[in-house]
Amino acid sequence: MRCGSYCNLEKKRKELVFDLRHLEGNLPGLELRMAQPKLLHFMLLCLLYMAHAGLSSGETKVTRAVKEAVTFPCNYEIPEKERTYYRVYWQHDTKVVQAYVPGRRGEDLIDLSYVNRTVMEMANNLSVTIFPLQVPDEGTYECIVQRLVGGQYKRVHKQDVQLSISADFPEPTTEVYEETGYWRMTCSSRQGYPQPKLSWVNNGKVLTSVNTSIFQDPVTKLYDIQSELHINQTNNSLFICSIDYGDSRVSANVTLPKGPDSWSGALIIAATLPSIFFLIAMILLVYQCFYKHSEGGLYSPPQELTSVTTTEEGNGTESPVAHVNSATTSSGRAASV
């Protein structure tokens, strides 16, 4: 089983300790015994530094934003006269980003996702440029240089580049809605990367949201995030909606509107009820008085108005004459016409 640089470092440390002890035994002396701890510590630091340098050599880390351009150097030069003996490949995982193969067209070798987005400069350290960057471009890139030796191509150089992609989330959009018995607050932001984390804070205390949803676009791989918080407070209060992604953060402040105090509402209702009752009583009283007055002033004539026909003397014409049956007046006498 291969244990890598750590096992080699531990082996060298043990060998160093053994050599120092052996030297101390063969050359006894006070000065050597006093210098041994410092010497051992110094040599261990040197070994750790060398191991770290060996592990990190040949790899470059780069961070770029979506839609930007990036250029990776391969840090290798090929004389123009000798290019026919070389092959150069830029790869991302299993995809060929750019390639130089004598007698072949580079466009026929690269992956479709990098067509018309990459350029390799043979005269500039075999560097490759990618534009515009997309989230799927994130990852490790390898520059592999091969030289024709004895009829076979052998690798003579390898350069690794680690690319990280970022897309800034815009300042969150917040809304406040008044519901029955509580306030409902929402916070959202769109089109960012990497995957975000949203939190609500009030007076330094992290609150628990009712619902937080994260959506990643299947094509662009960018994220949208939305969260909802329910609060039953009625006084002015400041809330902070924060979205963390990678090493970045965006936030927005939400001020809860001052709602009517419950005691004030009760007092308003208590003061309004007597007026409402008084108004209803006045309406009933007026209606009752009007009804009695109308009932006492109504008059239905008991007599019946009839029409009779008489004959005028002299011309023989007939004319209607009104006749009212007799009725008893309020004085007890009969009235007639």
From TrEMBL:
<dbReference type="GO" id="GO:0031295">
    <property type="term" value="P:T cell costimulation"/>
</dbReference>
<feature type="domain" description="Ig-like">
    <location>
        <begin position="170"/>
        <end position="255"/>
    </location>
</feature>
<dbReference type="InterPro" id="IPR003599">
    <property type="entry name" value="Ig_sub"/>
</dbReference>
<dbReference type="InterPro" id="IPR013106">
    <property type="entry name" value="Ig_V-set"/>
</dbReference>
<dbReference type="Pfam" id="PF08205">
    <property type="entry name" value="C2-set_2"/>
</dbReference>
<dbReference type="GO" id="GO:0009897">
    <property type="term" value="C:external side of plasma membrane"/>
</dbReference>
<keyword id="KW-0812">Transmembrane</keyword>
<keyword id="KW-0675">Receptor</keyword>
<dbReference type="InterPro" id="IPR051713">
    <property type="entry name" value="T-cell_Activation_Regulation"/>
</dbReference>
<dbReference type="GO" id="GO:0042102">
    <property type="term" value="P:positive regulation of T cell proliferation"/>
</dbReference>
<feature type="compositionally biased region" description="Polar residues">
    <location>
        <begin position="303"/>
        <end position="318"/>
    </location>
</feature>
<keyword id="KW-1003">Cell membrane</keyword>
<feature type="transmembrane region" description="Helical">
    <location>
        <begin position="263"/>
        <end position="287"/>
    </location>
</feature>
<dbReference type="GO" id="GO:0071222">
    <property type="term" value="P:cellular response to lipopolysaccharide"/>
</dbReference>
<dbReference type="InterPro" id="IPR007110">
    <property type="entry name" value="Ig-like_dom"/>
</dbReference>
<keyword id="KW-1015">Disulfide bond</keyword>
<dbReference type="InterPro" id="IPR036179">
    <property type="entry name" value="Ig-like_dom_sf"/>
</dbReference>
<dbReference type="InterPro" id="IPR013162">
    <property type="entry name" value="CD80_C2-set"/>
</dbReference>
<dbReference type="Pfam" id="PF07686">
    <property type="entry name" value="V-set"/>
</dbReference>
<dbReference type="GO" id="GO:0006955">
    <property type="term" value="P:immune response"/>
</dbReference>
<dbReference type="GO" id="GO:0042130">
    <property type="term" value="P:negative regulation of T cell proliferation"/>
</dbReference>
<dbReference type="InterPro" id="IPR013783">
    <property type="entry name" value="Ig-like_fold"/>
</dbReference>
<dbReference type="GO" id="GO:0007166">
    <property type="term" value="P:cell surface receptor signaling pathway"/>
</dbReference>
<keyword id="KW-1133">Transmembrane helix</keyword>
<keyword id="KW-0393">Immunoglobulin domain</keyword>
<keyword id="KW-0472">Membrane</keyword>
<feature type="region of interest" description="Disordered">
    <location>
        <begin position="303"/>
        <end position="337"/>
    </location>
</feature>
<keyword id="KW-0732">Signal</keyword>
<keyword id="KW-0325">Glycoprotein</keyword>
<protein>
    <submittedName>
        <fullName>CD80 molecule</fullName>
    </submittedName>
</protein>
<feature type="compositionally biased region" description="Polar residues">
    <location>
        <begin position="325"/>
        <end position="337"/>
    </location>
</feature>
<feature type="domain" description="Ig-like">
    <location>
        <begin position="37"/>
        <end position="164"/>
    </location>
</feature>
